[in-house]
Amino acid sequence: MKRDGQWVSYDNRRLMAAQQAGLKSVPVKVVKPTDLIPKKNITWEKAFVDRFNDFRNIKLGGPVPNSGLSTQPSIVVRKGGK
Amino acid sequence: MNHINLNIEWQNQKLPIVNGIIYSDGSLDWINVDYVGDKRKIQFGSRIHLDDLLSNNEVGFSNIIINKKTQSFYKKINVYCGEGSFGGDGFVVVETQNDLHIKWIAFFETANPFEKIDIIDNKVIAYNNLNEKWIFDINNLSNLIIENY
User: Fold this and answer.
1) Would A23 be classed as within a structural domain?
2) A42 → closest Cβ in B32, B44, B65
3) The model's pTM
């Protein structure tokens, strides 16, 4: 989806996997902010905003900006049961 | 100390981001579910309390999407499954039918979305989009079993 003039991916895991696998390109599906996610009663805009502003992103440095991040995200595994 | 009201959060379609089983009193059995190779590895942690995590700013809330609901009139429960804000999030919520209060929540950051839910005997079985069924024993909730289907 385009946000603030920048293409932003909703699913960074697959992008990262593709990048680590050395793929030069990946297929994408372009969506509009007002489109409903298939089988779900939520728009892509809401899903992006929820994800960008998720507590875990905020803990790791703040909400993801509208235009996304160009840096590789770090992989964090939470362990509990202390 | 800060206090989490699970019922209010649930009404607002928010759930605590944890890995494990949360009980109605806010206590939590932490369970780490990872992959070792292509096999699931389940590690059971100790019991903690959400309020303690909240006081230390170690827990936040995810907006959730409910994907399926089922119910048992015999057990007088409604059971929901769905997903959180991140792609790996999956949850199950069981609430009482008489007052719609939370009985227990299972939330895992590594479950992926749960897309189908069944109640069979004393088991709540949640099916995710990885072709796994996560089996929760109502009599022993932290005894989580994950099988492929």
Assistant:
1) yes
2) B65
3) 0.92
